Amino acid sequence: MTSVDTAATTEATPEPQGYSAWLGGTDHKSVGTLCLVVAFVFLLTGGVLAAAMRTQLAQPDLAVLARKPYLQLLTFHGTFSFFLFLLPAWIGIAFAIVPLQIGAPRLAFARLAAFTAWLFVAAGAFLILSAFVHAGASANGWSMDNPLPIHGVGGRAVDVWILGVGLAAVATVLGSVNLLTTVLRMRAPGLTLARLPMFSWSVFVSAAVFLLAVPVLLAGLVVLYVDHHMGAHVLDPRRGGNPLVWQVLFAFFAYPAMWATVFPALGVVSEIVPVSARAALFQRKQVAFGLAGAGTLAFFGWGSELAGNKPIPQILFSVTAILILGPIALTMLSWLGTIALQRRAPRFHAPMVQSIGLLTCLGLALPALAVMYAMGQGGAGHQSQWWVGAWHQLLVGVSTFGIICALYYWAPKLWGRHLNAGVGGLHLLAIVGGVDLAFIPLLIVGAQGMHRRATTYGADSWGPANLISTIGAYLLAAGVALFVLNLVVSVVLRRGRLATDDPWEGDTLEWATSSPPPLHNFDSLPEVRSSRPVHDIRMAAAADAATAGEEPDTRELVEASA
User: Fold this and answer.
1) What is the reported pTM?
2) Where are the domains of the chain?
3) Which of 85, 104, 427, 499 has the fewest CB atoms found within 10 Å of its own CB?
4) In the CATH scheme, what architecture does the domain 262-499 have?
């Protein structure tokens, strides 16, 4: 089944309206908004923690934070930023946009989507609670292996951390199932998988990766809990256990999951660039296959995160980890080709300007990751600050920046208000400059031998690079705060410019309904004959108007086609 009757699936009972819909409704747009609210709360929290840690490392031998508090902040920063920001943010955007892009009136499991959002809220509550249990917060890192908790080590905070991360993992699995089912079962007539919008396709790939990777984390959390809390000794080498069991399970989850937060960002820019260039995406099929291939390769490079462990065949995993960079580079080249092959200049509207920032960050992240995978160990390897700089360049400069691009592009559709483009230019400079200043110096000190979990250092030669990195972290935090302020003022306080139904002259089905859409999304759907159905309608309107010698009315033709 690939079609739905919008009239038949409209809810008979009225949904909550306004802000109350975020808390009690099942409309996918409201549920997605709730996920975004949760995500941005923890983005700001994680950013404050990162600024505190960078302050400690601004100069040699500082004593702003003692070793244990520093490692506790490091644990919370990593956990908040990934499990409570990147995961709920991308799932929230996907909940809100994918049904609109595929012409569906709702998600496949509307109540399950609301439950997913509240699971993220519960996960956040438990992870915050872990800071206040007896013996204090965990200081084992976001991967909970520094050192690995064994029976009686780490206190009750580890148990609460396991519960919080487990809830976030379950929410991710449920969200992925919902999105996969929605794409497979609720597409509009004529919208084949080959015609699926690039963002929906990237979400499809990402959800499939999560569905395969996250259960491995859940299994690992069970092992970690029974070992830490019940004395099972699965991981305790003193009792015949092997700590590599947890490290393998976590790496098998973390490596593909981190890449899975990058794919939707690539999908967003793959929507924005063709609209800006007023052309189809160059080599669209190859890009779609490339994303699917990258999703597959993500499960073959996890061992690169365990460089230095003798049982891990490092050469094999280094090669597979480098191979995943190929499809990502192909996607970037497709964006450049889409623009370069047009005889007219692209329109540099606000989403396109933000996408340029993402493109620059991606261009720096790929070679940094390639060097890290090739080296495996040593100064540019996985135990050095190079790892921190390379992965943050990708996860902040691409995954996080992709969320900003998505909201500039779809905020007018979801909430009927544009984000301020002038403020967008300011925080673009702050974020891009902050990413480069914060993370490129870490490549330098990493190559010189600075360990990735160092809480202080004595080498004066590392001081200038670390000071620049700290300044970059402050600049990055200011840029993110400015973006969140722009979002609040423009959307929540409703000061943003009112949006038309199709402000960017988009190509896909979400631009064929009102801004914001009604509860059931579409009163009627236009016929889908290609991957650019709304563009097809616009071209038909222009042709008819040229024949009649009149100005084309795209909106009337969309309604007529539907």
Assistant:
1) 0.92
2) 22-260, 262-499, 500-562
3) 499
4) Up-down Bundle (1.20)
